[in-house]
Amino acid sequence: MLAVLSPGQGSQKPGFLTPWLDLPGAADRLRDWSGHAGVDLIHLGTEADAEEIKDTARTQPLLIAAALLAAEHLPLAGSVVVAGHSVGELGAASVAGVLPAEAAITLAGVRGRAMAAACALEQSGMSAVLGGDPDEVVATIEKHGLHAANRNGAGQIVAAGSLEGLAAFAAEPPEKAKIVALKVAGAFHTPYMAPAESELAAAAAGIEAHDPGRTLLSNFDGTAVTEGREVLRRLVQQVTSPVRWDLCMNTLKELGVTGIIELPPAGTLAGLVKREFRPIGVPETVTLNTPDDLPAALDLIARHSAQQ
What we know:
Blueprint: E1 2-6, H1 26-37, H2 41-46, H3 56-71, E2 81-84, H4 88-95, H5 101-119, E3 124-131, H6 134-143, E4 147-153, E5 156-162, H7 163-171, E6 177-181, H8 194-204, E7 215-216, H9 228-237, H10 245-255, E8 259-262, H11 268-277, E9 284-287, H12 294-306
Parallel strand pairs: 1-2, 1-8, 2-7, 8-9
Antiparallel strand pairs: 3-5, 3-6, 4-5
Helix pairs in contact: 1-3, 3-4, 3-5, 4-5, 5-8, 8-9
């Protein structure tokens, strides 16, 4: 069984869209999507430096545009499993047939701008916790008034909340855990993002959502969602809810996934899957970063679709 994964914020690199513009129609597609996103996607994906594409308002629509631009070149069967991490869920929802590409990119633009604005209201941040006992890590996070905003599996949990709480947490880390402060604008996937959730809900109210044509996993609890309106409701709610990527990976295991394609900018989710699946056997994986990776992706689709 084949899974297609759409990455989230932090996976972008300067110039990563440049090779995709060599494909026929790619530049026209990005120019059209730029109008929906409210940002210049071609500039951001080719000329912008790391600082510019770190801006949440720009990064989120850029990531969804990149994922969907590549996905257009993949002949995916209906039996494919699709999942995205954080904002990547918008890309996954489009690949699964819930949202047209234009709607997914429009919502990514609204989400990015709203979350950036919410970050400016209060000083907050995030820190990655590597290693340690997961239950102890979460308990220590909560002890300091913080939130376990991302539970990524493979020994990685992200704490989020006030800068004071994060500093106290770093000074008293859980046993056998390493804490790394993340360079982000604020505490994503926590109540700090409540204003952004409200703004995204208003935008989503005008979007028509279709029932998924492929199995679509939710960051909320790792389960497959079968109704389009429920997918859209969860996409909105996820702005303030923890990302349970660990549960998504558990479902990929239960479904017997044997092959994985990560959409661009690829590598982060493939790395998490590799570490999480190692005890039972790592699925064959293609990280789709440039058009040169398309032949390997097409080969993987052909072989793993035949196994379904």
